[in-house]
Amino acid sequence: MLTEENRIQYENYFQSNSDYYLEQMAKIDSRKKFTFNIAAFFLGIFWMAYRKMYIHIVIVFGIIFAEMLIEEMLLDLGVISYAVYETIDFLSMFIWSFLFATLSNGLYISKTKKEIRKILNENENTKIQNELISKKGGVNSFAPFILLLIIIGLISISSI
Which spans are transmembrane here (predicted)? Predict the structure, then answer.
Protein backbone atom coordinates (compact mmCIF):
# COMPACT_ATOMS: atom_id res chain seq x y z
CA MET A 1 0.00 0.00 0.00
CA LEU A 2 1.21 3.44 -0.91
CA THR A 3 1.78 5.82 2.00
CA GLU A 4 2.59 9.50 1.64
CA GLU A 5 6.25 8.82 2.55
CA ASN A 6 6.83 6.03 0.06
CA ARG A 7 4.75 7.86 -2.56
CA ILE A 8 7.37 10.63 -2.42
CA GLN A 9 10.12 8.01 -2.73
CA TYR A 10 8.47 6.54 -5.84
CA GLU A 11 7.93 10.00 -7.32
CA ASN A 12 11.63 10.72 -6.74
CA TYR A 13 12.52 7.46 -8.45
CA PHE A 14 10.14 7.72 -11.43
CA GLN A 15 10.74 11.47 -11.91
CA SER A 16 9.38 12.05 -15.39
CA ASN A 17 5.88 10.68 -15.81
CA SER A 18 5.61 9.66 -12.14
CA ASP A 19 1.79 9.99 -12.09
CA TYR A 20 1.55 7.43 -14.90
CA TYR A 21 3.84 4.92 -13.16
CA LEU A 22 2.14 5.37 -9.78
CA GLU A 23 -1.18 4.61 -11.50
CA GLN A 24 0.32 1.56 -13.22
CA MET A 25 1.81 0.40 -9.92
CA ALA A 26 -1.62 0.60 -8.29
CA LYS A 27 -3.12 -1.45 -11.13
CA ILE A 28 -0.39 -4.06 -10.93
CA ASP A 29 -0.57 -4.26 -7.13
CA SER A 30 -4.35 -4.76 -7.25
CA ARG A 31 -3.94 -7.41 -9.98
CA LYS A 32 -7.13 -6.11 -11.53
CA LYS A 33 -5.94 -4.27 -14.58
CA PHE A 34 -4.04 -5.19 -17.69
CA THR A 35 -1.29 -2.64 -18.37
CA PHE A 36 -0.09 -1.65 -21.82
CA ASN A 37 2.78 0.76 -22.33
CA ILE A 38 2.49 2.31 -25.78
CA ALA A 39 6.02 3.78 -25.61
CA ALA A 40 7.47 0.35 -24.87
CA PHE A 41 5.43 -1.12 -27.75
CA PHE A 42 7.02 1.19 -30.31
CA LEU A 43 10.44 1.74 -28.74
CA GLY A 44 11.15 -1.63 -27.06
CA ILE A 45 14.72 -1.85 -25.86
CA PHE A 46 15.21 1.87 -26.45
CA TRP A 47 12.45 2.52 -23.89
CA MET A 48 14.28 0.14 -21.54
CA ALA A 49 17.52 2.05 -22.07
CA TYR A 50 15.75 5.35 -21.38
CA ARG A 51 14.38 3.89 -18.13
CA LYS A 52 17.81 2.49 -17.10
CA MET A 53 16.79 -1.16 -17.43
CA TYR A 54 20.21 -2.26 -18.64
CA ILE A 55 20.16 -5.85 -17.33
CA HIS A 56 16.80 -6.39 -19.01
CA ILE A 57 18.27 -5.21 -22.32
CA VAL A 58 21.08 -7.76 -22.11
CA ILE A 59 18.59 -10.55 -21.37
CA VAL A 60 16.33 -9.51 -24.25
CA PHE A 61 19.32 -9.26 -26.60
CA GLY A 62 20.34 -12.79 -25.62
CA ILE A 63 16.86 -14.20 -26.22
CA ILE A 64 16.43 -12.39 -29.54
CA PHE A 65 19.90 -13.47 -30.65
CA ALA A 66 19.08 -17.11 -29.81
CA GLU A 67 15.79 -16.81 -31.69
CA MET A 68 17.60 -15.34 -34.68
CA LEU A 69 20.16 -18.17 -34.68
CA ILE A 70 17.39 -20.78 -34.60
CA GLU A 71 15.57 -19.09 -37.48
CA GLU A 72 18.79 -18.91 -39.51
CA MET A 73 19.58 -22.55 -38.75
CA LEU A 74 16.11 -23.69 -39.83
CA LEU A 75 16.49 -21.69 -43.03
CA ASP A 76 19.99 -23.06 -43.73
CA LEU A 77 18.84 -26.65 -43.11
CA GLY A 78 15.95 -26.21 -45.51
CA VAL A 79 13.36 -26.84 -42.79
CA ILE A 80 11.67 -23.56 -43.68
CA SER A 81 11.56 -21.56 -46.88
CA TYR A 82 12.67 -17.96 -47.19
CA ALA A 83 9.01 -16.85 -47.36
CA VAL A 84 8.28 -18.68 -44.09
CA TYR A 85 11.45 -17.21 -42.59
CA GLU A 86 10.28 -13.69 -43.46
CA THR A 87 6.81 -14.41 -42.05
CA ILE A 88 8.31 -15.73 -38.81
CA ASP A 89 10.57 -12.69 -38.64
CA PHE A 90 7.62 -10.30 -39.08
CA LEU A 91 5.45 -12.13 -36.53
CA SER A 92 8.36 -12.29 -34.11
CA MET A 93 8.81 -8.52 -34.33
CA PHE A 94 5.12 -7.97 -33.56
CA ILE A 95 5.16 -10.50 -30.70
CA TRP A 96 8.24 -8.83 -29.19
CA SER A 97 6.56 -5.43 -29.42
CA PHE A 98 3.46 -6.80 -27.72
CA LEU A 99 5.55 -8.44 -24.98
CA PHE A 100 7.44 -5.19 -24.40
CA ALA A 101 4.15 -3.30 -24.15
CA THR A 102 2.48 -5.72 -21.75
CA LEU A 103 5.43 -6.66 -19.54
CA SER A 104 7.38 -3.40 -19.40
CA ASN A 105 5.40 -1.65 -16.66
CA GLY A 106 5.54 -4.72 -14.43
CA LEU A 107 9.27 -5.20 -14.97
CA TYR A 108 10.00 -1.52 -14.42
CA ILE A 109 7.91 -1.30 -11.27
CA SER A 110 9.41 -4.52 -9.91
CA LYS A 111 12.91 -3.11 -10.53
CA THR A 112 11.88 0.15 -8.88
CA LYS A 113 10.56 -1.53 -5.73
CA LYS A 114 13.67 -3.69 -5.43
CA GLU A 115 16.05 -0.75 -5.82
CA ILE A 116 14.14 1.47 -3.37
CA ARG A 117 13.97 -1.36 -0.82
CA LYS A 118 17.73 -1.89 -1.15
CA ILE A 119 18.48 1.81 -0.68
CA LEU A 120 16.21 2.03 2.37
CA ASN A 121 17.81 -1.06 3.94
CA GLU A 122 21.36 0.17 3.38
CA ASN A 123 20.87 3.79 4.53
CA GLU A 124 19.11 5.16 7.58
CA ASN A 125 19.52 8.85 6.78
CA THR A 126 16.37 10.07 4.97
CA LYS A 127 18.23 12.77 3.06
CA ILE A 128 20.77 10.26 1.73
CA GLN A 129 17.96 7.82 0.91
CA ASN A 130 16.15 10.45 -1.15
CA GLU A 131 19.35 11.48 -2.95
CA LEU A 132 20.19 7.87 -3.82
CA ILE A 133 16.63 7.11 -4.94
CA SER A 134 16.65 10.15 -7.25
CA LYS A 135 20.06 9.22 -8.63
CA LYS A 136 19.24 5.53 -9.14
CA GLY A 137 15.87 6.27 -10.72
CA GLY A 138 14.84 8.71 -13.37
CA VAL A 139 15.79 8.40 -16.98
CA ASN A 140 18.92 8.38 -19.10
CA SER A 141 18.32 10.39 -22.26
CA PHE A 142 21.65 9.37 -23.77
CA ALA A 143 21.27 5.60 -23.26
CA PRO A 144 18.95 5.01 -26.25
CA PHE A 145 21.44 6.76 -28.54
CA ILE A 146 24.34 4.75 -27.12
CA LEU A 147 22.27 1.58 -27.61
CA LEU A 148 21.56 2.60 -31.20
CA LEU A 149 25.29 3.07 -31.83
CA ILE A 150 26.00 -0.35 -30.32
CA ILE A 151 23.38 -1.96 -32.55
CA ILE A 152 24.74 -0.19 -35.64
CA GLY A 153 28.23 -1.37 -34.67
CA LEU A 154 27.06 -4.96 -34.22
CA ILE A 155 25.27 -4.91 -37.55
CA SER A 156 28.31 -3.51 -39.35
CA ILE A 157 30.59 -6.10 -37.73
CA SER A 158 28.26 -8.97 -38.63
CA SER A 159 28.01 -7.86 -42.27
CA ILE A 160 31.79 -8.02 -42.78
Answer: 57-84, 90-109, 137-157
